[in-house]
Each structure stands twice: as structure tokens, then as C-alpha cells.
Design goal:
Strand content: 15-25%
InterPro entries: Bact_response_regulator, CheY-like_superfamily, Sig_transdc_resp-reg_receiver
Strand order of the largest sheet: 2-1-3-4-5
Distance between the termini: 14 Å
Helix content: 40-55%
CATH architecture: 3-Layer(aba) Sandwich
Number of domains: 1
Pfam family, one: Response_reg
Protein name: Response regulator
Organism: Halotia branconii CENA392
Keywords: Phosphoprotein
CATH topology: Rossmann fold
Shape: globular
Mean pLDDT: 93
Largest sheet: 5 strands, parallel
Structural class: alpha/beta
């Protein structure tokens, strides 16, 4: 699941993972807020998710706050944090809260694909 308040992220991820989607190697789900993502997790979708990729900066609950909630309730679910701001505070907070990956923008999709397909 990709969590980002920017709607165009959905198109970007669908383009970058076009081959993997067509070959049914992955499925992509999208949530446009942390709150929406947590609602999905409370439904049956948790059984279908291997990874959440989330932006930090979002209105309402941010990605780091969501990471903490996810790891408290679903400790085995992998979470990668994406940020445009590569600062030490966010990095250390993400690691403290249990992030499984920390990615800075612009996203290097080849590396991200490799990580996802090796989960």
C-alpha cells in the first residue's frame, strides 16, 4: 500500500510498476491519508498487505505517527518511509518507531522494486 496525500503518486507508482502489475507480481493499494490507511488495516486488507510505503509529510496524522501505530498493532507488517527532507531527526525517529526502510526523494524506483520483490 502506498500512503501519500498527493493524488499523482498513484499514477507514478502505476507507471513505474507497470510490468510487475501486468505480470501480477504485485498489487498496489493506495490511501491518501494516514487515517485512511489505518481504516484499511482494520478491515480484512491486512491479510493482503506485505508492505506499506508512506510519505512523512501529510495533513492530519503524519507518516511517522502512522508508523508508530502500525508497529504497535501490526509489528510484522513492513513499513518504508519516504521523505523529501533527509534530516537526521526524521531518520532516527523512523528507526526508533521500527521503520523497515527509509527512502529519500527522488525515489530510485529500481532499488525500491528490488526491495519489494525480495520481501
Amino acid at each position: 500500500m502506498v500512503v501519500d496525500d498527493e493524488q499523482d503518486v498513484q499514477l507514478l507508482f502505476r507507471q513505474k510498476f507497470r510490468r510487475e502489475l501486468k505480470q501480477e507480481q504485485i498489487k498496489l493499494y493506495f490511501a491518501f491519508s494516514a487515517e485512511e490507511a489505518l481504516e484499511y488495516l482494520q478491515s480484512q486488507l491486512i491479510n493482503h498487505l506485505a508492505l506499506i510505503v508512506t510519505d512523512i509529510n501529510m495533513p492530519g496524522m503524519n507518516g511517522l505517527e502512522m508508523l508508530k501505530v502500525i508497529k504497535d498493532h501490526y509489528p510484522n507488517l513492513k513499513v518504508f518511509i519516504i521523505t523529501a527532507y533527509d534530516d537526521e531527526y526524521n531518520y532516527l525517529t523512523a528507526k526508533q518507531y521500527g521503520a523497515d526502510g527509509y527512502i529519500t526523494k527522488p525515489i530510485q524506483f529500481d532499488k525500491l522494486k528490488e526491495k519489494i520483490l525480495n520481501l
